[in-house]
Design brief:
mainly alpha; 4 helices
Length: about 90
């Protein structure tokens, strides 16, 4: 199977593994950001980071950031828009 030449090797790997094409760019960007963050760490922080497995780090991150919801709040169905003095 061939893939468009505009796909990176990593994106092609994800597609072969069955990832949805609509998700691969974001996964690649997240992996790139993680690799960069790890590369900037000194030895002490690298050791601290790897005291836990990467899946555990992901679970910790998800658990700790569940209270933060970056999505904009939508008005409830029965909620009226504020009167702007008109």
């Amino acid at each position: 199977m061939t893939y468009p030449s505009n796909r990176s090797k990593y994106q092609q790997r994800l597609i072969r593994e069955g990832f949805a094409e609509t998700r691969i760019k974001l996964v690649e960007e997240a992996m790139d950001a993680m690799i960069k963050a790890l590369c900037y760490m000194d030895g002490r922080n690298i050791k601290l980071f790897w005291k836990k497995s990467f899946p555990q780090r992901l679970r910790d991150y998800a658990a700790d950031s569940m209270s933060y919801d970056p999505t904009p709040k939508r008005k409830k169905k029965d909620e009226k828009l504020p009167d702007k003095g008109r």
